[in-house]
Amino acid sequence: MAACYCGSGVAYENCCEPILDGTTKAMTAEVLMRARYSAFAAHKAEFLHQSLHPDHRHDHDIEATRRWSENAQWMNLQVVELKGGTETDEEGSVEFIATYKEKGVVRPHHEISRFLKQDGDWYFVDGQLVPPKPEMRKQPKVGRNEPCPCGSGKKFKKCCGA
């Protein structure tokens, strides 16, 4: 029994697979988001289309979704934050980072997804990408005409800055 793609620690057969094949429904927004991640990893583009809110399906390109799913290696999922989306809620959001490899490059997909419950079923509505935080320099910047921090006694531009 292989572990589920979603990182829950539960076997795929007991976690996301019953949701993907329609024998069980997602009871929370987080469970649906995890199932959608597993659908990418298991190349189940039809589930991704069916779990999309009916009001947003008209412009969904299922073939482009299938290509992205199949051309990427889905590595892991990290749930960052949940807001609402419980069994008693009607809406919720899930912030997550899905890491995948495409064309040899590892990429994080950081998103806040919005979900709505309609007639007792949870649906993905839309997602907002979270931009990466700027990297902060840990040490002060060395000017080109300042002494090189390596201790050579030369100017930075003539030493390590060359």
Characterize this entry briefly:
The protein is α+β, with helices and mostly antiparallel strands and 162 residues long. The chain has four helices and four strands; from the N terminus they run ααααββββ.
Detail the topology: elements first, then pairings.
Elements: H1 17-20, H2 29-41, H3 45-50, H4 62-71, E1 72-84, E2 91-102, E3 105-118, E4 121-129
Antiparallel strand pairs: 1-2, 2-3, 3-4
Description:
The protein is α+β, with helices and mostly antiparallel strands and 162 residues long. Helices cover 20% and strands 30% of the residues. Strands 1-2-3-4 form a four-stranded antiparallel beta sheet. A hairpin with a 2-residue loop joins strand 3 and strand 4. The mean pLDDT is 93.
**H/E element order:** HHHHEEEE
Strand proportion: 25-35%
Classify the secondary structure makeup into a structural class.
alpha+beta
How far is the N terminus from the C terminus?
A: 55 Å
SS field, number of helical segments: 4
Strand order of the largest sheet: 1-2-3-4
- What's the story with the biggest beta sheet? 4 strands, antiparallel
User: Assembly type of the shown chains?
Assistant: single chain
- Label the overall shape: elongated
